[in-house]
TrEMBL record:
<dbReference type="GO" id="GO:0006014">
    <property type="term" value="P:D-ribose metabolic process"/>
</dbReference>
<feature type="binding site">
    <location>
        <begin position="116"/>
        <end position="119"/>
    </location>
    <ligand>
        <name>substrate</name>
    </ligand>
</feature>
<comment type="function">
    <text>Catalyzes the reversible conversion of ribose-5-phosphate to ribulose 5-phosphate.</text>
</comment>
<dbReference type="InterPro" id="IPR037171">
    <property type="entry name" value="NagB/RpiA_transferase-like"/>
</dbReference>
<comment type="subunit">
    <text>Homodimer.</text>
</comment>
<feature type="binding site">
    <location>
        <begin position="28"/>
        <end position="31"/>
    </location>
    <ligand>
        <name>substrate</name>
    </ligand>
</feature>
<comment type="similarity">
    <text>Belongs to the ribose 5-phosphate isomerase family.</text>
</comment>
<dbReference type="Pfam" id="PF06026">
    <property type="entry name" value="Rib_5-P_isom_A"/>
</dbReference>
<keyword id="KW-0413">Isomerase</keyword>
<dbReference type="GO" id="GO:0004751">
    <property type="term" value="F:ribose-5-phosphate isomerase activity"/>
</dbReference>
<dbReference type="GO" id="GO:0005829">
    <property type="term" value="C:cytosol"/>
</dbReference>
<protein>
    <recommendedName>
        <fullName>Ribose-5-phosphate isomerase A</fullName>
        <ecNumber>5.3.1.6</ecNumber>
    </recommendedName>
</protein>
<feature type="active site" description="Proton acceptor">
    <location>
        <position position="125"/>
    </location>
</feature>
<dbReference type="InterPro" id="IPR020672">
    <property type="entry name" value="Ribose5P_isomerase_typA_subgr"/>
</dbReference>
<feature type="binding site">
    <location>
        <begin position="103"/>
        <end position="106"/>
    </location>
    <ligand>
        <name>substrate</name>
    </ligand>
</feature>
<comment type="pathway">
    <text>Carbohydrate degradation; pentose phosphate pathway; D-ribose 5-phosphate from D-ribulose 5-phosphate (non-oxidative stage): step 1/1.</text>
</comment>
<feature type="binding site">
    <location>
        <position position="143"/>
    </location>
    <ligand>
        <name>substrate</name>
    </ligand>
</feature>
Length: 246
């Protein structure tokens, strides 16, 4: 089966978890796109009702709006769902204001830590993930590895202002770096107006430690390591069928 079909199978299986009345985080990338198309079809056919999508990127927002999925921004959702709630009582690690999010990944290790951000949407994707009750990751089996970094670099979103100094910082940690380019040859600019440095650390022995190091650094806005505490299930498709890892 070709990769595109495998992506579609994983994405559509995850959509079975979306039920009437849910607030649904809509991921970014070619696999998440299949989930969005399926959700839109179910809404159109009357098989899903009272659904609101919360997009993880401008691209996803355009796609979902074009397909007729009712959308809310995260700010709108927050206001709507915390009207009668004492905000300080929310769990700040995961507020669960979004019922379920379906998103792709670039690499998944055997502990279900992820690398994301190949599509450049890692910042909004992580914000949505941390506001989500259940994060379902949809991949084909080629994305699985024993250690992060075997198959993919770590996208690091940095302030334009700090570009050279962050390259220097990442190289001091042992990474080989590339500034991400867009199709027109200029630097790729994220939805939040930042640059991305693709940092190749080789095999990452301790993702939690690297996560902390990158989190602590001023100038790094966000990075593509998503630790497994954010992840509920990975829907992984292969020619043998679909496996749900959790
Ligand atoms: C975008 C992402 C994507 O989910 C990731 O790059 C996987 O994309 P695809 O499904 O096209 O392989 O993190 O920022």
């Amino acid at each position: 089966m070709d990769y595109s079909r495998l992506k579609q199978i994983a994405a559509e299986k995850a959509v079975e978890e979306v039920k009437d009345g849910m607030f649904v985080g809509l991921g970014t990338g070619s696999t998440a796109k299949f989930a969005i198309i399926k959700i839109a079809k179910k809404i159109k056919d009357g098989h899903l009702k009272n659904i609101y999508g919360i997009p993880t990127s401008k691209k996803t927002e355009e796609l979902a709006a074009g397909l007729g999925i009712p959308l809310l921004s995260l700010n709108q959702l927050f206001k709507l769902r915390t009207k009668n709630v004492e905000r300080r009582t929310l769990n700040i690690e995961r507020t669960k204001l979004i019922d379920i999010t379906i998103d792709g990944a670039d690499e998944v290790d055997s502990d279900l830590n992820l690398i994301k951000g190949g599509g450049g949407a890692l910042l909004r994707e992580k914000v949505i993930a941390q506001n989500t009750g259940r994060l379902l990751i949809v991949v084909d089996k080629t994305k699985l590895s024993s250690r992060l970094g075997e198959k993919f670099f770590v996208p690091v979103e940095v302030l334009q202002f700090a570009l050279e100094s962050e390259i220097n910082f990442l190289e001091s940690l042992g990474a080989k770096t590339d500034i991400r380019k867009s199709d027109d040859g200029g630097f790729f600019v994220t939805d939040e107006g930042n640059y991305i440095i693709d940092a190749n650390f080789g095999k990452i022995e301790n993702p939690a430690e690297l996560n902390s190091l990158l989190n602590e650094r001023a100038g790094i806005v966000e990075h593509g390591i998503f630790l497994n505490k954010l992840v509920d299930s990975v829907y992984c498709s292969s020619n043998d069928g679909i496996e749900i890892l959790s």
